[in-house]
Design a protein that fits this description.
Blueprint (H helix, E strand, L loop, with lengths): L12 E2 L8 E2 L6 H38 L6 H33 L3 H5 L5 H14 L1 H16 L9 H22 L3 H20 L7 H9 L1 H11 L7 H30 L2
Antiparallel strand pairs: 1-2
Length: 272
């Protein structure tokens, strides 16, 4: 058996520090290819297990709209109910289920598997968040169409969901991942995810003007609120598009911050 110097091996070089045994065997995987790989793996893994839960989220939102139909006739209240119930599907999957997933992954030692892979931490978080958020698209669209038919709202600007779902999904998925990774126990991660989803339900579906002032302040702190407001504004005859874009910009900013927090929480959990 011949011995080949490490300097001539493709993709391998001796470390510049000169320390014995320290070699760089290859470049670290880039962010985008790693993100796509993690996204595809998470999408195929969660497809069978999460689809039944997606039906639960959709039926839950539709049931809430049917109950609210008995006390809400139309106008601004109907717009809030339909927009809040549609975004609730995103909150159920992105916030609740993702918190449970990362909480269980941390407790079972599954993070050790990802820690051994040469992929950036951001790719793991973004890939998982994107896969879970993708499951919300059909349920959100079905809920919105059903709600518009139930309350007699126009469908002309339903296309705005193409911006509301990913931006609101990013904010809620990042928050759910952070809760799951920072919670010391998986049971606590499940509890926090469910509490967050309940807040999105109560503060998103109920019309804001019917809430006390203190509750409205809490509502303004919830990331899903701005997705609800952006979608609700489009049901009018002449939507105020600058306000819609402003709400979507807030969702984008919160999404960036929450995903950055989740990435930091992943690095923190992976080294422990």
């Amino acid at each position: 058996m011949s011995v080949v110097p490490a300097e001539v091996l493709p993709g391998a070089r001796v470390a510049e520090s000169g320390a014995p045994g320290e070699t760089d065997l290859g470049p670290r995987a880039r962010l985008w290819p790693s993100l796509v790989a993690v996204y595809r793996a998470q999408l195929s893994r969660a497809r069978v297990a999460r689809i039944p839960l997606l039906f639960v989220a959709t039926f839950q939102s539709i049931g809430i709209m049917i109950m609210m139909r008995g006390v809400v006739d139309g106008g601004d209240d109907a717009r809030s109910v339909v927009a809040g119930a549609s975004v609730l599907v995103v909150a159920y999957v992105g916030l609740n289920l993702l918190a449970q997933y990362f909480g269980q992954l941390r407790a079972s030692g599954g993070l050790d598997h990802y820690a051994t892979l040469p992929v950036p931490a951001a790719a793991v978080v973004l890939g998982a968040a994107g896969a879970y958020a993708s499951f919300t698209v059909p349920g959100t669209v079905v809920t919105a169409v059903f709600g518009c038919a139930l309350f007699g709202l126009p469908l002309a600007h339903l296309w705005v969901l193409a911006a509301v779902i990913p931006l609101c999904g990013a904010a809620l998925s990042g928050l759910g991942a952070a809760l799951g990774l920072l919670a010391p126990r998986p049971e606590l991660a499940t509890l926090l995810g469910q509490l967050g989803m309940s807040a999105a339900l109560l503060l998103g579906v109920l019309p804001a003007h019917r809430m006390p002032d203190a509750v409205q302040v809490v509502r303004d702190l919830l990331p899903s609120t701005y997705g609800v407001e952006a979608f609700a504004r489009t049901f009018g005859g002449h939507p105020d598009w600058p306000l819609v874009l402003g709400d979507l910009a807030v969702c984008a900013a919160v999404g960036t911050a929450s995903l950055a927090l989740a990435t930091w929480a992943y690095r923190r959990a992976a080294v422990r």
